[in-house]
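A further point concerns the way the authors explain their paired sequence and structure data. Nothing conveys this as quickly as seeing an actual entry. An entry of this sort, consisting of the sequence and the corresponding backbone structure tokens, reads as follows:
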Amino acid sequence: MNARAVVVGDTFELRYALRPRGGADIISNFDDAEPETLTLGDGTLAPMLEQWLIDLVPGERHVFLLDPWQAFGASQPDLVQMLPKTDLPSDMEFAVDQLVEFAMPNGQTLAGRILEIGNDAVKVDFNHPLADLSIEFEVEIVRIL
């Protein structure tokens, strides 16, 4: 009898790693005591990564080699912005290459990487940190719940 494959809406246990192609892991839960539990399609995992999980069978380990357009896309110049320091919390400390979360008016947060710090403004890149990179997405579905 064949094992059932993952479909949209399934809740399952997953082990995974993300790394730039040929590079070190950016994130991995392969060494964690417990796998992560998620529901395919609930937004926990980026949609561009979720699509690679459809039709996977528990117990098999796969490494997907993704070009930037298949993973986090290309950088968008309009997502690099100069923010006046007066618009930022006065107690916020800045460092180049620092990843900072900014509160949006709707209550959500948006992460950005600081590129430059000027006297009156901070240049922030709101593109995904993995934009423009070819990615290795290693996955193993442990079991479908």
